[in-house]
Amino acid sequence: MKIKMVPRDEISSSRKKSSKYAPLQDALEKLKSGGDAIQVKYNNEKELSSARNVVYAFNRETNKKVKSRKDSVNKTVFFYLK
């Protein structure tokens, strides 16, 4: 067996997003700075966490800074670009 160290950016990751969050991913791509926000309703904290993880991955992949605000009373989160 041969072992070799390679830079991490040479490793291609093809992990697919869950189809449940594909509409969120599509909406994130359409966000414009200073434009409309994305409103996402969630049922529990796990769904909220998953949606935020999709946004964090989008930020890493595109070098954008999508921010979020949570409305706990209405179980809604808003994503926007400043």
According to DSSP, the number of beta strands is 3
Backbone shape: elongated
Strand order of the largest sheet: 1-3-2
- Give a short account of the largest sheet: 3 strands, antiparallel
Helix-strand topology string: HEHEE
Number of helices: 2
Task: State the helical fraction.
Answer: 25-40%
Arithmetic mean of pLDDT: 89
Span from first to last CA?
50 Å
Strand content: 15-25%
- Rounded to an integer, what's the Rg over CA atoms? 16 Å
Residue runs with pLDDT of under 50 for 5 or more positions: none
Task: Explain how this protein is built.
The chain is α+β, with helices and mostly antiparallel strands. It has a domain at about 35-80. It has 2 helices and 3 strands, in the order H-E-H-E-E. It has helices spanning about 20-30, 45-60, and strands spanning about 40, 65-70, 75-80. The protein has a 3-stranded antiparallel sheet with strand order 1-3-2, with helices on one face. Strand 2 and strand 3 (about 75-80) form a beta hairpin. It is elongated. The chain starts with about 20 loop residues before the first helix and ends with a strand.
